[in-house]
Amino acid sequence: MDDAQNIVGAAHDKIQHDSAVKHVTGKALYIDDMPSLPNTLQIVLVTSPLAHANIKSIDGSLALAEVGVVAVLTAKDIEGHNDIAPIFAGEPAIADKVAEYVGHPVAVVAAETYDQAFQAVKLVKVDYEELEPVLLIKDALAKEQFTYTPPTVTQGDPDKAMDAAAHRLQGEVACGGQDHFYLEANVALAVPGEDKDMMVYSSTQHPTEAQHGVSRVLGVPSNAVTVEVRRMGGAFGGKESQPTIIAALAALVASKTGQPAKLRLRRDADMIITGKRHDFEFDYDVGFDEEGRIEGIDIAMMMRSGNVADLSSGVLARSLCHGDNCYYLKNARFRGYPCKTNTVSNTAFRGFGGPQGMIVIETILEHIGHHLSKSLDEIRKINFYGTEDRNVTPYGQTITDNIIVELTDCLMGEINYEGRKKAIDKFNAENSTLKKGIAAMPVKFGISFNMPALNQAGALVHVYTDGSVHLNHGGTEMGQGLFTKVAQVVATAFQVDIDNIKISSTRTDKVPNTSATAASAGSDLNGMAAFDAANQIKARMVGVAARHFGASEDEIEFRQNRIYGGNESLSFAELAQKTWEARESLSATGFYQTPDLSWDPITCSGSPFYYFSYGVSISEVVIDTLTGESRTLRTDILQDCGKSLNPRVDYGQIEGAYVQGMGWLTSEELVWNDKGRLLTHGPSTYKIPGSRDVPPEFNIHILDDAPNRMPTIFRSKAIGEPPLMLAISVWLALRDAVKRSGDGTKLPKLNAPATPEAILKAVTEIRAVN
Ligand code: MTE
Ligand code: HPA
Ligand code: MOS
Predict the structure, then answer these.
(1) Fewer CB within 10 Å: N-end or C-end of the chain?
(2) What residues are annotated to the active site?
């Protein structure tokens, strides 16, 4: 399989995203661009203004009397089950008896136009009985109010090891949540068909789950519901579970009215109503030796889960499995607390708990270094996982592909890290207002869904008699280039030009029972499934060709759009025609399951990851100690992509993930008031990074000659999420700059996001006498 990576027509490093031109010229079709069907209704949601309240009654009669208003529906109108929970049960699509956050949908208004629906929402009378909300992680923790049973990862005897250690430190740190701020907000269009059939166009990473949600809410079997998505205008995890709610409510209106119905959230509605990244608070206790080697560690990871469990158990499991990052922790206890709060459900976001797990261990290493007057880099070195020994994670998986030391040494050498540090010392000695900081960040990220059952994929490939190929698989396209990568795989299998492969929308009636496109595993899973389908067809074509040429099957060669046997050849189209004439099928479904995975959610142990993705970044920042403003001046990245399926796409993923991570750690701050109302629900108050926040010097290198040691598709590695965590180097560099603003004897008190306000406060504290 390894030598198969010879894509004809264009070298794989020249192929661009199939929709690149359509994206920038506005020709790419999103759901809201689809031609409107006659009688399509527009939906606007009525949402709770209170964070916690009993819903005593809802009266839609005034709204219904308005011109154009066709329906006002509530949970009472649901004929099936009002439950769209992805993992546990009991998560209503629309609040029934109790509203659990400000923004919780309690009713839907459907009208002929959006404006009519928008105005009519104000006329829906909801009688609430206000209840005491729990808004803070700490308050939920004190009440032991969790969305599911708190999980713990344990290895060895951390208490004994900490007691016996030469040094011991405690501390705390916290990181904020993050809004996905995809360009296309959540949207679904439901079109009723014959009988109880429902066709749903949904901007979702998880068509199968949207199908299940619609079928449950409508009370119809899965085979009555088809979900389709051509592409999303960004998703970032925010469309893994949340679109199911939107699809189910659009379908509810379509089924009740018999008319097509569209639910498209305005930006601020999307920000208020749908879930975000989990914010965390951490407490730690660590024992270590004279050199800084960790002997025992205990971390409490207190996560905001929001009003329901949603995907929190997967996210928290991933935090617990990334609290080690690149370090061997032979005696460790990581305790997770999924705190139930009266705020919107926290959900998947690029990294899926991994970034949060890594932030705390890096803070701890920094603390140890400060205590022993050593650099963070020295403490890391002592604690890095080994390759032959010291290579078992706290959850019991043996790491067999560790390259973190080589990767880190390589980048540090390449950019003269030690020299840069000295130059920064000099700068800081000469400047009192501006202070620079620099930090590295090594990343080890586990690839696979941490729930083994989800690591499967299907594909459907047809070859037509003119030699054109139709490709379908269970993965969804959200901008990450999955469709392009999978098309490359099929083009490679058939040795035809990539233009010959028609990429098609993801649909639940073509490939059923799929997983979300998530966990960065889209190309690993769907690439393999499509390769399997293509190879089945190819095997039949080989048989036909052998008979045609009077050659043996192993003499048949597919090369540059032609098929060779003996001294003769046929075009791919001619062979397709002959295969049809021979009455052999030119269509196949493919399937793949990732081998050798295990995970016990009760003991939180096993080998949940097929392999690890590695990367390292070094970022240099400057802060203004008078205003707290900061800039990232330069970033260097070395990222392991295995044998990249598409380096252009992978560069884009690295850039985008890194800048998105920077936003999370520096400028993006979610603020709720004391009533649980989100105050930052638009771009004026919620600052995502802009083009000028991208480091002016931004050097990205993909590790050369690094085929995946595991037999993934063409030995590639996943790339979607891992580089987000490289942005932690920015946050660590900002802490370094704050520390250097003082006399160097104090550790900065700076959580994430390190906004200008937070930096200014931290600088003031560090410069305070006593
Ligand atoms: N890239 C773009 N452009 N848009 C996105 O929404 N989502 C990220 C990442 N890259 C995203 C993206 C997330 S959260 C994941 S899990 C992966 O893409 C999913 O796709 P993959 O498995 O095909 O990498
Ligand atoms: N990543 C994304 N989504 C998931 C995962 C994961 O690891 N596990 C379950 N859903
Ligand atoms: Mo990505 S958070 O796994 O959708």
Answers:
(1) C
(2) 721
The structure's pTM equals: 0.98
| Calpha distance 307→347 (Å, rounded) | 11
Ligand 3, from 182, 350, 449: best to mutate by most atoms within 8 Å of Cβ? 350
pLDDT tens string 37-69: 999 999 999 999 999 999 999 999 999 999 999
Please report the pLDDT score of residue 1 as a whole number.
44
CA distances from 78 to 82, 92, 186, 220, 249 (A): 7, 11, 21, 12, 10
352 lines ligand 2 (CB under 6 A): yes
Tell the residue nearest (CA) to atom 1 of ligand 2: 519
Determine if ligand 1 sits within 6 Å of the CB of residue 520: yes
**Residue 356: is its pLDDT beyond 90?**
yes
Beta bridge partners of 201: 189, 228
522-549 and 572-581 helices cross at what angle (nearest 10)?
70
Structure tokens at 709: 């040691």
Q: Considering only CA atoms, which residue is closest to atom 7 of ligand 2?
A: 449
**What DSSP string runs through 535-561?**
HHHHHHHHHHHHHHHT--GGG-EEETT
- φ, ψ for residue 593 (rounded to 5)? -130, 135
My answer on whether omega of the bond before 243 falls inside 30° of 0, hence cis, is no
Q: From the CA of 536, how far away is ligand 1's center (Å)?
A: 29
Q: Does the C-beta of 133 come closer than 6 Å to ligand 1?
A: no
Handedness of CA 339, 345, 347, 349 (dihedral sign): negative
At 344 the pLDDT is 98
Does residue 454 have its Cβ closer than 6 Å to ligand 2?
A: yes
Cα separation, 695 vs 712, whole angstroms? 33
The vertex-556 CA angle with 555 and 558, nearest 5°, equals 140
DSSP type of residue 627: T
Flag whether pLDDT at 7 surpasses 70. no
**Tell me, what's the pLDDT at 2?**
46
DSSP string, 158-204: HHHHHHHSSEEEEEEEEE--B----SS--EEEEEE-STT-EEEEE--
* pLDDT one-digit tens code per residue, 123-134: 999 999 999 999
In this structure, the strands spanning 456-463 and 697-702 are: unpaired
Does ligand 2 have an atom closer than 6 angstroms to the CB of 320? Answer: no
Report residue 14: phi and psi, to 5°.
Answer: -110, -10
pLDDT digits (tens, 9 = 90+) for 723-738: 999 999 999 999 999 9
State the ligand closest to the CA atom of 525. Answer: 1
Structure confidence at residue 12 (pLDDT): 75
